[in-house]
Every structure is written in C-alpha cells, then in structure tokens.
Amino acid sequence: QEIVSGENEEESNGVNLMEFSDEILLHILSYVPCTDLVLNVRRTCRKLATLCLDKSLTHTVTLQKDYKVNKDKVKQLMRDIGKEIYQLNMAGCYWLPSSTIDHVTRCKNLVKLNLSGCHVTSLRLSKMLSTLQHLRSLAIDVNPGFDASQLSSECKATLSRVLELKQTLYTPSYGVVPCCTSLEKLLLYFEILDRSREGFMLSGQLMVGESNVPHYQNLRVFYARLAPGYVNQEVVRLYLAVLSDRTPENLHAFLISAPGSFAETGATKNLLDSMARNVRLDALQLPKAWINGSGLLQHLKFNNPFYFSFSRCTLSGGHLIQRVINGGKDLKSLTSLNLSGCVHCLAPESLFRKAEDDIDSSILESLVVSCCNLRHLNLSAAHHHSSESIGNHLCQLLSRLKHLLSLALPVCSITDVAANVEKPPTASNLVPQTFGRKVRIGIQTYPRNLADQANQKIESSVFWALMGSLRFLETLEIIGSSFSSAMPRNEPAIRNSLPPCVRAQSVGDSEVAAISQLTYLQSLTLAQLPNILTGSGLINIGLQCQHLRTLSLANLGMMGKMVYMSALMDMLKHCKCLRDLRLEQPYFCAGAQFFQALSHCSSLQRLCIVSRSGTLQSDAVMSFMANCLEVIMCHMFMGESLTVCKNLQQSIVRSFQADRPALNVVIFPLLHEDLTEVIRDVPMRHLDEITLFKSRVAEEPPNLWW
C-alpha cells in the first residue's frame, strides 16, 4: 500500500518507481528483508509479485538479526519459497522455538545451513538432516543432552557429504564431527563452563560412546576458539589428538585462539613438527605458549598467507621481520594481521627491553612496505611509543596503508611526540585516575567552537593526518594499553583499574574530533582516553560519520565524573543509523535527559550500559523502550539495588515482549556475587558482539564463515 500510494505521488512529479528496469528494481529489493519481500511486498502489484520471487532474491535467505521474524513468518516463508532456497542463515535466532526448525525440511535443495544460536535437539537435527541430501555446509550448537546415537542412518549419510562444519560446544562432546567424513573446513567454538548450574565441576573427558575418531584427511581449514576455562582446553586437545597422528596434506589454515595460558604438550609439539615438515600455510594463529621461546616460526612454511595472528605473544620485531615476512620480502597477499598484546613486536629484540620503550620505526616501515595490501590491522593492548625522529611516527607510517578497512591502536601510540615534548604535564594530567577523594583542579581553557578547536591543534597533528589518509576506514578502535573492562566473563566484576599510560595523558577531545574525517566509519570504540574534558569531538563524529552503526565508549576523561554527558547527548541526536551502543563509565547517570537524546537514534537495536556506582531512572528507561520500537536488547549493569533492577527488568519484559519476540533484557547490579550466573544466560550473539568488551579487529580471518 505504501508503494502504491508512493506511485501516485511520484506520478505527479513525472517519476514512477515501476518504470525502472528490472535490474534496478532487483537491486533495490535486495536490501529488503526476505520475510518482507515474500510476505508483504510481493502482494502489492503483479510486477513486484514476479520480481520478489526472482532467484537472485530467494537463492540466499538471511534471517540473522531479523529480530521481527517469528515462528509463523518462518513457517509461511518456507511454505512459499522453501524449494527455491539454497542458502539459509538463521544464526542467532535464539527467540525462535525449537519446533521452528521442523519447517526447514521444506528446503529440499539446501546447500548451506547456519543454525548457530538456535535451539536444536539431536532428534530434530536427525529428522531435518535426513531430508537435506544436497547439504554441504552446516553450522549448529551442541548443547547438554545432545546424543549422537539418536542420529538416523539417513542423517549420517547427509553428514558424510558435508564439507564445511561450524560447531559451537556448550558441553564436552564430539558433536557430529565423527559423522562428517569428508570435512574440508572445521570451525569449533568451545563455550563449555567449568561448573554446572548446580556448582559441580565438569570434566573434559568425552563419553565412551562418543569416542569415534574424527576424519581429518581432507581438512583444509582448522579453527578453534576457546572461552576461558580448563574444560575447554581439555576438550580441544581431544580434537587435536587425531591431527597429531596424521596431518592432512591439504591443510592451509590452522588457527587456535585461546585466552590465558594454554600449555604445549607432547602431542601438540608433534603436530606442529609435522606441520612444519608437510604443509604450507596461508593462515596461522597459535596460543602464545606454543610460540614464545620456540623456533617454530623459523621452520613453518607459508604459501600466500592472508591472515596472521600473534596476539599476546612475546614475539620481537626482529623475529617478526626475519621469520614471518622473510626479511621484508613482498607479502602483498596478507590482508589481516593481529598483533594485539604483542608488546615487543615493533622492537628489534625483547630480552632487555621495557614495554614502554620507544618502538623501532624501521621495523614498522618494513612491515608497511611488505604488507602494503593490509585491510585489517590490530596493534592494541601494547605501548607503541614513537621516537622524536621526524617522519617516523607510527601514525605517519600507517598512513601509507591505503587499503585499510579496520584498525585498532593503543591510545599512547597516537600522541604527537613533539607536542608532548614542548608542553609539560598539566595539573589535570597529574591527578591520579582513582575513585578516592575528589580533588579540585584547574581546568585548561578550551575552545567552545569546534571549528576553532580543529584549527588550533589537530589539523597539524600526526593523528589528524592519519585519519585524513584512511578515508575508507570502516572500523576504528582506540583503546588504552592498560584498559580492562569491569564486565566479567567467567569471574567476578573487576573492581580496580590500572591508570592510563603516561604518554596517553594528552589524548582527548581534539584527537576524537579528528576521527570525524572518516566519512564511511561504521564501528567506533574509544576506551581510556584520559584527557577528555568536554567530549566536544563526539559531536563532530555524530555530524560527519553518518554511517556509524556501532559505538562503544569506555572510561573517558576523569574517572570520578561523567564529563562528556552533554556532548554525548548532542552526538546521539545525529546518529540515525546507530544500531549498537555500549557505554562503560563509572558514576554514569542513566536519566531522563540521556534517554530522551538516545530516542533520536531511530535505528537503535541493542543497548548495553556498564557503570560502577551508576544510577538509573526506571520511568526514563520505560519511556525510552516505548519510543524506540527497534530496541530488542537492553543490558544494564549498574550500582542500583537488586530489587530496583529486578522490578525494572520485569516491567520491560511484561510490557514489550509480546510485540518484540527477540527481546532480551538483563538489568543487574554490577558488583553482585551472582553476576556470572546471570551472564551465562545471555544469548551468545549479544554476549560476544556487544556485552563483553574486547578488541574485534582482525580477531578472526576475513570471510571465515559465510
């Protein structure tokens, strides 16, 4: 009806949407969710009825993040176009009942199916897969109660033809891996907790009936990501045991992401030795203990590498240049590099070096010259201090990487060295960043006018020049090298935070304003910028970065006061495309004025606020939820009492759950002893993408999964 009424209006102006060519209309329709196309748009007129069922629109159906879809819509969608669907992505549809999966059986021609985050029992999985004989790519969760013995012979026959498998494990199990005898790509996500809900310690030993040997002979890609916990480490070793016996000849990507300490064993050493002898890799990531102090990188062979991750390793810059990029030889194939937490990666050696010492610019220059096609680069969680040498600042060297799409840097790396040398620390810089007794200090004078502010300082700074040279950057993270989030994963909330690096003390409003040059910026993370006085740079970003979809701000300015609230509220009024907002700031007041400003973000879907000693106004939250109809996730971890939090959470669910099937609300005291129990019930999609703070640049290889 809207389209028809729009036609009448357009006809008066001499333009009719239906007069466009089919190719243009199909391109326009490709931006409309498939459920709307099939269930609504195609009913408006005959031409659209035909176009909406075009193969280019029905071949691949994505329900991921289509938060308005429900069981009935899925049922109708599968009934209308099920036979035309070849790729179906339902990842993260946690709100759909498990019976919804029964309707997937109508998609007889499915080649790719993603059910990560969906509720699927082993019996339902067996019934569904028995009918999908053409399936070659599958993503599922393995939850407690999964029983591989319940899989039928027809189901196992389908699994034997699957080439790509992504499996998220919430319980110790091989899942369906032993049934997939033709695997070429295996992605494993280990999310097993060390304790059950009843408090019992879990074991990583698999059940005797599940000890079938996985088939890795055709494997090309092996990826494993571990959540914290010893059980996850025990289980992944069982998956690796088969690899250590016989390394697949065609293996070209081997990636293990493990937090904390994951010790090397005899079996893993044999595996790595075998890889060094028999395979040539294109992508590599290993636990830090497997690389630190070993000569492994010297013996591994690489073909045309596109991804390296040495996160948290003690790898020195000298070793990086000699063993990884072959003394500065051409590595144009490398598109993604993760050196997060690699504190010595830009220094010639690490033996006698302090983490805060200046970097060796020649190492970074060799890296930039050799890897000139980098699109994703992560240098966060380290002190990368540039020397006073003219033209050798880290920002100046990185400005040569014209293809960068995502970049993560520590705050101390973007400071203008000359400015720091000329200007002694101010009183505000010397105040300790603690929660103790408040100290009155003299505040520097600063220009109210944003244009004057830019003209005064940042247009001549190295960071301003870097932002100007990376015009197509889509993701930017500027994170303090000593920043740690108060939001836990499997442990109590962090109560104390380390002070920012001395070099970072001058980074504030003017540097934030420089970011506004990134016209195509979609995701921005700023954490532990100590010299934020007004937040005026945020307004520039709101005005200029109109494509911004994700915003994460943490511990900006003085820790005892929310100094940038006024600027933040002004910024939010311009963020029409913003979908995800995460705020972590002590003493944050989530009141009526804040939520009124946030209501201007008409596209907002997910909100997370983490605030030690923070307060909230329940009426303001309810009014915000009523005004912002797209919001389906509200997570608030504040300093309010348990009673206040529970009452507000229940009110939101009671008022809005019926109209928003995907609604997920968690409001809970940040320092409560049961917080970890509450966290475990948060859907993994929200937990991984927004609730937990982490650097996401180059976290995984690009296009790891479709």
TrEMBL record:
It comes from the Eukaryota. One of its GO terms (cellular component) is SCF ubiquitin ligase complex. GO terms for biological process: SCF-dependent proteasomal ubiquitin-dependent protein catabolic process. It comes from Spizaetus tyrannus. This is FXL18 protein. Residues 14-61 form the F-box domain. The lineage of its organism: Eukaryota, Metazoa, Chordata, Craniata, Vertebrata. Gene3D superfamilies: Ribonuclease Inhibitor (3.80.10.10).
